[in-house]
Amino acid sequence: MKPLLEITDVCLSYHSLSGETPALSHISFQLMPGEFLAIVGPSGCGKSTLGRTILKLIEPTAGHIIYDGKDITSLNIRKMRPLRREMQIIFQDPYSSIDPRKSVIETISEYMFIHKSYPTRREIMNRAVELMDMVGLARRYADAYPHELDGGRRQRIGIARALSLQPRFIVCDEPVSALDMSIQAQILNLLMDLQDELNLSYMFVTHDLSVVKHISDQIMVMYLGTCIEFASSDELFQKPLHPYTKALLAAIPEPDLESRKKGFQLIRGEVSSPIDPKPGCRFAGRCEHCMAQCLEKTPEYVETEPGHFVACHLVNGR
Ligand code: ADP
């Protein structure tokens, strides 16, 4: 099977009056059709930027984005248009990505009108109602406005709109972070059911590793614009290698009281500045295993076992 998405050495810098902010540095990974890839990392590490870069909402500074065997890195807006149907995004806060003046049915049908997905208005509206059924939104909400609905239902509108053009790949940008715990589970279950039903590939961005523990196939851990570890979900939870990944796992609350007694592993120290990254490992200033070479040389991103990659001198220098 061929990968649906191949990202090679993607770099991106934001330019502003205060200078250049490197947000992504040499990111590489592959996503197979129907796969669930979680991108995990602290706030500001570049997760959303990566999602938007892959969708070509932001232009990468370097590297290659191959989608379904085609290099889309340098495609302009016009040439990207047919691919927009296939590559969609679900945002963290549906309230800010939905027009408050449009009703539920108008929002869900919006992209289908733009892309002229069906020849008649009636067919588009029928499809919008089908999508409401598919995401579990009762038909009585068709004429409601976003402010009349709770966060979970608003997120269902965002999901239905993303599905309206029958995509194959969806970037889910912290889609449950703004929701209550019970609603989070409902939305995650919905995304999983839709993935099975429609064979979707997800890139799921989150700062919370526990959210994706049981639902992701692969996990990529990011830190300050770099990829520091990549492995299958099972492998990452059983055999984490990077000290930052280990600290993330240790921070997941355990229901079992005995495990809780082990306590948290605090990450101390200063977060390096993304604007002026120092040489060496970006996690060095906070790593309790920091060695001389960690302050001097950027660790290489090495495949230590099939499918398990890590960038750490401690692991790769053994
Ligand atoms: P995350 O999604 O992991 O929280 P982001 O991708 O939003 O991280 O941000 C990565 C880095 O890029 C941060 O340092 C952030 O401040 C910076 N950044 C994000 N958007 C912009 C922008 N439009 N202009 C300048 N810097 C930005």
Structural notes for this entry:
The chain is α/β, with parallel strands linked by helices. The protein contains 13 helices and twelve strands. The protein is globular and about 65 Å long. Adenosine-5'-diphosphate binds next to strand 1, strand 2 and helix 1.
Structural class, please? alpha/beta
Helix content: 25-40%
Distance between the termini: 34 Å
Order of helices and strands: EEEHEEHEHHHHEHEHEEHHHHEEH
- Number of alpha- plus pi-helical segments: 13
**What's the overall average pLDDT, rounded?**
91
Bound molecules: adenosine-5'-diphosphate
DSSP summary, beta strand count: 12
Q: What fraction of the residues are assigned to beta strands by DSSP?
A: 15-25%
Report the principal-axis shape.
globular
Q: How are the strands of the biggest sheet laid out side by side? A: 6-7-8-3-9-10-12-11
Largest sheet: 8 strands, mixed
Indicate the topology.
Blueprint: E1 5-16, E2 19-31, E3 36-40, H1 47-54, E4 62-67, E5 70-71, H2 77-86, E6 87-90, H3 94-97, H4 104-114, H5 121-134, H6 151-163, E7 169-173, H7 181-198, E8 201-206, H8 209-212, E9 218-223, E10 226-232, H9 233-238, H10 243-250, H11 257-260, H12 292-296, E11 302-305, E12 308-310, H13 313-316
Parallel strand pairs: 3-8, 3-9, 6-7, 7-8
Antiparallel strand pairs: 1-2, 1-4, 4-5, 9-10, 10-12, 11-12
The structure holds adenosine-5'-diphosphate.
